[in-house]
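Slide 14.
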Amino acid sequence: MNWIENLLRDVRLGAASLARSPGFAAVAVLSLAVGIGAGTAVFSLVQAILLRSLPVPNPQELRILQWSGTDVRVRSFDGNSRQDGNGRIAAEAVSHPAFLSLRAQGAAQADVFGFYPLHDAAVVAAGQAFVADGAMVSANFFSALQVRPQAGRLLTPGEDYEGGGMNVVIGHDFWQRRFGLDPGVLGRSVALNGRAFTVVGVLEPGFNGLQPGQASDFYVPMSGVSPFLYTSITADWHWFVRTMARLRAGATDTGLAAALDVAFAGETAAVLKRPKILVEPGHAGLANDREHYRKPLLLMLSAVGLVLLVACANLAGLLLARGAARRHEVAVRAALGAGRWRLFQQSLAESLTIALLGGGLGVLLAAWAQPTLVGLLAVDADGLRYDFSLNLPVLAFSLAVSLAAALLAGVLPSIRCGRTDPMNALRGRGSLVGLRLRAGRILVVAQVGLSLLVLTSAGLFVRTLANLARVDAGFSLERLLLVGLNLRGGEYADTNPVQFYERALEAVAAVPGVKGSAVVEFPLLGPGGSSGSFNAFVDGPPAPAGMMQVRRLRVSESFFTTMGVPILRGRALSGADSAEAAKAVVVNEAFIRNYLPDRDPIGVAFATWDAAWTIVGVCRDAKYTDIKEPVSPTAYFSYRQMFYSRFARTHLRTASIAARTALSPLALASEVRQAVARVDPGVAVTMVTTQEEVRDRSIARERLLAIFGGGLAGLALLLSCVGLFGLMAHSVTRRTGEIGLRMALGATRPDVVRSILREALLLAAAGAAVGLPLALALTRLVTSQLFGVKPGDPLSMALALVAVLATAAGAAWIPAWRAQRIEPIEALRYDG
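Slide 15: predicted structure.
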């Protein structure tokens, strides 16, 4: 244990030495603290979103079951899907009959369970109407996950079949938030989307569902499908059930896939070819937004790593300069018997002390900065629902980074310290000064090169954000209030939704300050949307080959004037486009360009599954969901006309009211909500926001990268400035005699200033020569995160280069100014 005692003694000595140099200590600790703090804050996000497992026993046993196939002809699909380069479709949802078959076939290998996420369900409980997220689950959902109830019971076999009980299990957080932990909640009736469910159980705290970041408040058996879906649970044409499994002891992924392939092939022979079950790790659940956040988080972590390298180089340079200033003290210790290894240990202990102090302060900075990063990263109005606490893995990461920083920054100065020659040092010889200055120059060049890389990347992200801010959305975003509604809990949901919207629009229009209002199925530029296809025009021009995809949006006739989307040809939708009238539709310019480029579109009809819609007008192109993508062919249907498809006839029961205001939109939010509540108090409000906020959330990732990247670039530049300043100040101090001799021989003060500035700019230029090729090579990795700008953008690189050279000149100015004030006579007496 002697080495521990020696280490602690060396750390105490290092702390005492730092206390005698508070200026140096403050600069060194702060340099590391900011870098470690940024890294800790970003890693807390990475750990919560990308690395954390579900809070259930043995999560490593869980598997996600997906399927793949070709020639897919599924009639109705509700889930995520992707296509690989071989033409195979991979997706996550199956029909309920297919799920039952998979569960039975795989029973020997695993406990297969299913669920379907429910978003913004209309809830009436404890005398209040609100919205909540939940899930429809199979009866073995909780037993497979090994989740236990805190009160009551969980679902039982038979409850997920047609005719099963209308029971609900609620989460602990929901119980606390809405029922105040009332033990009498069991047996209470809760209305979900207008249907009564009985609370039979409350889950233990900690478990919030299988989709981290999207907490589930309640769980209903799949027998209760009708309030949430337009289909029967026994329908084989609607694929909506997500499936997972817990492997049994001794089972393998290969064995489970082989067993399930047999059942799946039999169930799907009529709708796809070459079916195959995919078994993937499920320890982290189904975080569908994980891929959305993966690249930005890894980019942020990489950028923080670069800045930490700059901070370590900066600290190494400061320690080299400090070692040169203390060479006499170290020489005395060496002359008194301290060996090279002992001097190395003592110097490294000082670096460790600085790193630990920087790490501790960095954790405090991370706790302060983390909420800001979370707010910038969120793309949903409710924010991110992950647990971002600075837990043990995050603190361990911070400690590991601190120790790594101590080694990176301290090894070279410690080696220099261990090589001290006591005889030369005590005689005042600077035999190692030249070596130290050369090492310092190398570190400064590295700092500048890395800073230039960070600056260039930040410039690309800032230009991307600026380009997105200039994109024309095709409609007016200013002073537009959006109020999301769910009618399923109100009296109009099943009787006459159209009448509700008519009355709600009248009530909102009567609010002072509202200039116009409209119904819109999904907020434009928001994450929701609908699309469909048609394969023929009716009595019109021949359709292009293949199915033609169209984005769909149901709106009121006031939509076009309220949103500022002009009608270019024909007419807008009108109140006469009722359920009994001929089906009317307005299409955008992209629709005409793609499908009717050479014909007058007015009067042309196209067929969906079992209805023909006549084009009555053409409107200007407007962005639908993604401001970064080109406008797709879009069709606007009247909310008055029931939407027909081959499988369902549905009224619009969830939508938003858009209100154009004369004042700030949020200033009228309360009055607009009250106006809607007066029409039907049972209608739940799912959101209250502005169109500009929706747009801003759609580019939240780009804003985060621009702001965070810009901040890190500024920090890297500041650290490079400190490093260059320290090196030039030390150089001037060591060259005092030389500068005095030059001035005695006729050099002017401006000559001295120019020589110092020239040296600094040469170092910056050398760093740029290293950094520019790095930037050209590495910025290609962020191509997918850019918009309207390409890697290697000359303007971004030029601005980064100017910033680096200006910083170098600024950092060298004070040492240069001090150098030109040196008096030759005093300088010639100076013994460096």
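Speaker note: The chain has 22 helices and 29 strands.
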